[in-house]
């Protein structure tokens, strides 16, 4: 046999403008309050009944965090005796005023003027080592990226030290110190 539902907790009709998604979101916010304040533990039926009032807050432009903050702030000194009564009172009394002016429609996106793409550079012959080949330069370079990378690697290797494979770290240190000192 089903348990009779008190009139105060009977689900009221949602305003026609509220969607099931908004009601579910408001219900989740109300149910999540138990994680912050144990005394605000609601059952699912209670949260569904209060969700209609919470949707009014969300429809007036308040975010989830603002609604949660308004419900959690300034609790009574003696604590909350009834989570349902406290939240119902808080939702009704602190509900923000509806916006006075209708929201302005968003401005149309500003489109950048159409500009011609930069001119395509001509192919030039690479001056790097190896077989003759061409590339399209990005700037004023005269060698392709691959040849520039090979040249940079060779220059780096010329500045590094070569060590015998069986040299210990002390011997390597002595070689470097002897060449630089």
Walk me through the structure:
There is one protein chain. Helix content is 44%, strand content 2%. With 181 residues, the chain is an all-alpha fold. Helix 1 crosses helix 2. The longest helix is centred in the first third of the chain and has 17 residues, at 20-36. The chain is elongated, with a radius of gyration of 36 Å.
Question: Quick gist of this model?
Answer:
With 181 residues, the chain is mainly α. The chain contains six helices and two strands.
Report low-confidence residues grouped into runs of 5 or more: 1-16
Helix content: 40-55%
How far apart are the first and last residues' alpha carbons, in Å? Answer: 96 Å
Let me know the number of strands: 2
The neighbouring-strand order within the major sheet is 1-2
Please report which band the strand proportion falls in: under 5%, 5-15%, 15-25%, 25-35%, 35-45% or over 45%: under 5%
Rg: 36 Å
Backbone shape: elongated
The structural class is: mainly alpha
Biggest sheet, open or closed, and with what strands and sense? 2 strands, antiparallel
Provide tags for this entry.
181 residues, mainly alpha, 2 strands, 2% strand, elongated
Write the topology of this structure.
Elements: H1 20-36, H2 44-59, H3 64-72, H4 83-93, E1 124-125, E2 134-135, H5 145-159, H6 169-180
Antiparallel strand pairs: 1-2
């Amino acid at each position: 046999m089903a348990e009779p539902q008190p009139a105060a907790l009977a689900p009221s009709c949602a305003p026609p403008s509220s969607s099931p998604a908004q009601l579910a979101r408001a219900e989740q916010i109300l149910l999540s309050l138990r994680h912050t304040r144990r005394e605000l533990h609601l059952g699912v039926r209670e949260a569904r009944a209060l969700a209609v009032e919470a949707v009014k807050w969300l429809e007036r432009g308040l975010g989830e965090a603002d609604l949660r903050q308004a419900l959690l702030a300034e609790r009574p000194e003696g604590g909350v005796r009834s989570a349902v009564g406290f939240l119902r009172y808080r939702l009704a009394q602190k509900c923000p005023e509806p916006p006075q002016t209708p929201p302005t429609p968003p401005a149309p996106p500003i489109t950048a003027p159409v500009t011609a793409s930069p001119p395509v550079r001509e192919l030039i012959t690479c001056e790097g080592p190896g077989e003759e080949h061409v590339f399209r330069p990005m700037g004023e370079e005269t060698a392709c990226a691959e040849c520039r990378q090979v040249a940079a690697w060779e220059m780096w290797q010329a500045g590094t030290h070569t060590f015998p494979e069986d040299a210990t770290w002390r011997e390597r240190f002595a070689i470097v110190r002897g060449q630089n000192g």
